[in-house]
Amino acid sequence: MAVMEINQEKIPTVRLFDGQLAPCIGMGTFGSDHASPVKVKEAVYGAIRYGYRFFDCASVYGNEAEIGEIFTKAVSEGIVRRGELFITSKVWNDRHGKGDVLISLAQTLKDLQLDYVDCYFVHWPFPNYHAPGCDADSRNPGAKPFKAGQFMEVWQQMEKIADMGLSRYIGMSNMTIPKLEAVLPLCRIKPAFIEMEFHPSFQQKELLDYCFKHGIKPIGFCPLGSPNRPVRDKTPDDVVDTELTEVVNVAAARGIHPALVCLKWAVQKGVIPIPFSTNEKNYQANLRCVTEGLLKKSEMELLEKAERNCRLVKGQVFLWPEAKGWQDLWD
Ligand SMILES: NC(=O)c1ccc[n+]([C@@H]2O[C@H](COP(=O)([O-])OP(=O)(O)OC[C@H]3O[C@@H](n4cnc5c(N)ncnc54)[C@H](OP(=O)(O)O)[C@@H]3O)[C@@H](O)[C@H]2O)c1
User: How far is the CA of 322 from the centre of ligand 1 (A)?
Assistant: First the structure.
C-alpha cells in the first residue's frame, strides 16, 4: 500500500531574520563512501514525494548533478513547485580564490538545474583542501590557519552572489564564536544560517546561544551522530548518540527509535536538523516524527544531560603543517 505523504501544514516552520519561513527539518545528501549518487538521488525523489522540502547539498558531495535531475523531475511532474523547495549548497575549500565563488555556484546551479539556491554556504572557513576520500593522516602542505581578512574576501564574493539574486540567503558553516566575533562586524550581509555539528552528545550550547542572540538560524549536521560517517572521522573515544542512556530512556518510554528522539530534541531546541538516509522507512520516520508527539520539559531536561562534548567531525585533514592537533581548528 502506498504510504500517504505528510501534509505540509503539519510540518512546523522556523522564522528567519527577515520574517520568511523555512521548514524545521531537512534532508542531508552527503552519501560519504557508502551511498552512491544514484542511491542518494532515489532517496531525494522519495523524500520529496513524502513531504520533505529542505535539502542540504554541497558540491563536494559529488552528487549534485544526480540530485538536480530529481528537482527538475519533481517540479515537472507537479509534485512540488520550485518556490516550495528550500535548497542549499556550499562552496568547497578549493574555491576560495578571487572569482571562484561565482564559478563554483554557477556549476552547482547547472548541476542542480536551478536558477537560484535558497542558501549558499562557505563550507569551511579556510581554503584548506583535501582530496575526497583521503585518510585521517592526510595533510595539505599549503593549508593555513583561519584569517579573518582571507575569510572576508570569500564572504564579499558571497555577498555579491546574494546581490545578484543567485542565492536568497548566504550562510557560514563550521564556525566558532571567536571566528564569528572577528567577521560578523565586517559583514555587509549577515549570515542567515550557521551550519554546525549538533547531536545530544555535542550540544554546542554557547554557539547556539550566540546564533540566537544574533538572529542567525542554526542548522544541525550529524543530528543522529552520523553512524556511517567516513572512517577518517571515527576515533575510539567517540560515543554513539543513539546508545546514550538518556536518549535510549526517552525512546524506550515512548516506544520510538532513539534516532527520532534526537530529531525531536533538535527541532525543539530551535535547530534545523538535516538527517541523511537512503532508507525509505527511516527518512519517512525522520520527517513524520517532527509532526507528532512533542517532547516534555522533563524529557528535554534529561537529554541535556546527554552532553559529552563529543565532536565527531574533527576536521583534522584540514590542519596546517604547524598545527598541534584538531582542537586548533576550533579555537
Ligand atoms: N556543513 C558540514 O561541514 C557538514 C558536515 C557533515 C554533514 N553535513 C550534512 O549533514 C547531513 C547529515 O549528517 P550525516 O549524514 O553525517 O549524519 P546523520 O544524519 O547524523 O546520520 C545519518 C545516518 O543515520 C542513519 N539513519 C537515518 N535515519 C535513521 C533512523 N530513523 N533510524 C536509524 N538510523 C537512521 C542513516 O542510515 P540509513 O541510510 O540506513 O537510514 C545514515 O547512515 C549530511 O548528509 C550533510 O548534508 C554537513
Answer: 32
Q: Round the average pLDDT of the chain to a whole number and report it.
A: 95
Count other Cβ atoms within 10 Å, centred on residue 72.
Answer: 13
Active site residue 61: yes
How far, in Å, are 34, 72, 137, 147 from residue 67 at the CA level?
A: 17, 9, 31, 34
Q: Which three cell numbers stand for residue 314?
A: 574533527
Which one of 52, 61, 120, 283 is the catalytic residue?
61
Q: Which of the 8 DSSP states describes residue 139?
A: -
Domain covering 8-330, topology: TIM Barrel (3.20.20)
Domain locations along the chain: 8-330
Give 151-186 pLDDT, tens digit per residue: 999 999 999 999 999 999 999 999 999 999 999 999
Q: How far is CA 236 from CA 232, 239, 300, in A?
A: 12, 8, 28
- pTM for the structure as a whole: 0.97
- The secondary structure of residue 55, as a DSSP letter, is E
Ligand 1 residue neighbourhood (C-beta within 6 Å): 28-30, 56, 123, 173-174, 195, 221-229, 257, 259, 274-279, 282, 285-286, 313
Q: Strands 21-23 and 13-15: what pairing? A: antiparallel
pLDDT value, residue 322: 86
Q: Grid coordinates representing 299?
A: 524529557
**pLDDT value, residue 132:** 67
Q: Is the dihedral of CA 211, 212, 216, 220 positive or negative?
A: positive
Q: Name the packing angle between helices 64-76 and 37-50 (round to 10°).
A: 30
Non-local (6+) Cβ contacts of 99 within 8 A are 157
Three cell numbers, residue 226:
552520523
Return the pLDDT at 32: 86
Write down the pLDDT at residue 2.
52
Test site for ligand 1: of 204, 224, 243, most ligand atoms within 8 A of the Cβ: 224
Cα distance between residue 125 and residue 271, in whole Å: 21
Beta strands in the chain (DSSP E): 13-15, 21-23, 27-28, 54-56, 86-91, 117-122, 167-173, 193-197, 217-221, 272-273
